[in-house]
Amino acid sequence: MLRDRLATEFRSSRGEVPAEVRPLLEALVRAPRARSILVWLDKPRGGAACLRRLVDDDLPLTHETLDSAGSGQGPALLRATLVHLGALPARNEPLAGLQPWLERALAPLPAQHRRTLHIYAEWALLRRARRRAARGRFTPASAAAVRNAIRCTAAFLTWLDDHDIPLASLTQGDIDTWLSERRDRRHVRMFLRWAHERRLTGNLEISDRPRDEPHCWWSESEHWTHLRRCLHNEALPLDVRVTGALMLLYGMPITRITVLTHADLTGGNTPHLRIGEHPVALPPAVHQLLQRQADHTEPISAVGRITPRPGWLLPGYAAGTHHSAPALARKMRLHCLPARPSRNTALLALAADLPASVLSDTLGISISAALQWTRRAARDWNSYLAARPTEDRY
Q1: pTM for this structure?
Q2: 223 φ, ψ (degrees, to nearest 5)
Q3: Interior angle at CA 68, CA 66 and CA 318, nearest 5
């Protein structure tokens, strides 16, 4: 039944299944639960409906045609599955999604600000983003930072309109008035520097706001209690235990944990996990936990399960993808293991024992961040924490 329906659902106007669609259909036929595929076929806004429209219109199956099919979970999951099967080439999705988002974000702005912000976004922000993607990882968090910069700049330009201030006539007094009403400085400072270099405005200053020190911590007893939960509490989901252990021991951010692969974990007499530049030795209990995750966790997607490949330690919902960092962070909070106090406590403990250069190489953090943590560890934080009310540590 499933094979017959798949053979008729995705025929082009020429009466044949396009060659680039066949790998997907062959994988779907092999799915262990045919009912789940039938449900997918019947979803009005799912990936099957998106693929059906493209085939009916005789459009080639490319990233560009999928972009034109609209946003939403259906096209996104279809794209990930096609990339996993090799029907589409891989691409950096966070970076690729910025261009269509920019067009939507600029649409409500007045014409003069739309033009200025489009040039700034295209030639400053997106250009920098493309360079960063070419050098290494450009993550969803990186794309979120670009979108935030555009939103903040758009809000600043709207503020100028509300106060009848042309960009060319902007004064330091106007900037000081804006600073008294707004909190964001960094993104607007970047925009004003760019505008001054192009003689769109004068040389205006926005001073840096002093950085707040970390204020979310676990006490020593809380730290060890949460670590014991992660190592020994079988009632917790396995991915929560793995993530919590790595945060509490090594201060790893969730964005880094989600992209760990089986290749990052090595066994033998001295098991290791690659976190930064060098592998880090794992305590036996932590290695057993990670090895259990690697051995017994299956991909969530039906296509991912029938096309096994060495991949992510924490597989995601779509075939070939890793777990979403925001979704995992929400799951950790639901189990009373928020990331910020867990990471802060671990990093402070490590910084008290390791030089900044070793901390940077081992954990893969910048040398400036490592230096900040070693300076904090050199202070008398124990008395500081003891003086704080218990509820403030959360």
Answers
A1: 0.81
A2: -55, -50
A3: 30
